[in-house]
Amino acid sequence: MNTKAVITHIVNWLNEYCENSRMNGFVVGISGGIDSALTSTLCALTGKQVICLNMPIHQHKAEYDRGHQHIQWLKSTHSQVTSTEVELTQAFESVGKAFPTDIQDRLTMANTRARLRMTTLYAFASHHKLLVAGTGNKIEDFGIGFFTKYGDGGVDLSPIADLMKSEVYALAKELNVIAPIQEAPPTDGLFADGRSDEDQIGATYNELEWAMRFVAEKKEMSVLSPRQKEVMAIYQQRHAANRHKIDPIPVCVIPQEFK
Fold first, then answer.
1. pLDDT tens, 112-170?
2. Long-range pairs of 204-213 with CB within 8 A, sequence gap ≥ 24
3. Which structural domains are found in the chain, ordered by start?
4. Cβ contacts of residue 9 below 8 Å, gap of 6+?
């Protein structure tokens, strides 16, 4: 991949979309992970206003520290980048008190965190006339649907959604994103124990990239090794279960003769 050309293309695309939308710039939620680090850096390269939001909710310390370090680095290299920390733990706990206890399973409350952060991003976006820049990559957004619907999936535009995870790392390296973020295991930041994406999914992003390409190329399944079959099953199960996230919202079209 020609990383320099891809970076220039994305930055130009961000600029053009922002100008056509008559907005002032971008707001990005910073998680301490590679995707939000790359997205915020690409947004900063447009020269437009960028607000980085750190939104801790019972945040694992390592994730919080990486996010903070990235924000400081980005502000030191781009004068138009600002940041705000919005401590959402108390707000999250208040939501928990309002919810019936019998619906507060681990996944439901993890997704509630993501949706609370989305609400915060849009509050800043509305006030400052900014676009909410999404941080999902191709595997997450179109492969296995590894995101929260109307949480981190609630965005105005998706600058890195056509990049595989390996390509995200390649661009981050080209842009000198800080080493702690480049070296950290990918995590969604929705659990206080700091569990990695691999812990949750059961496969690495390299394996999932292989599966996504294998399916696209319609290769013969009989040639797979036992581990490849396991990874393929993980990929296909998640892809099927999360089609409601990946596909456009279905619309019930009324026949013309009924109108």
1. 999 999 999 999 999 999 999 999 999 999 999 999 999 999 999 999 999 999 999 99
2. 205/139, 205/164, 205/165, 205/166, 206/165, 206/166, 207/231, 208/139, 208/143, 208/144, 208/165, 208/234, 208/235, 209/139, 209/164, 209/165, 209/166, 211/143, 211/235, 211/236, 212/138, 212/139, 212/143, 212/164
3. 3-246 (3.40.50.620)
4. none
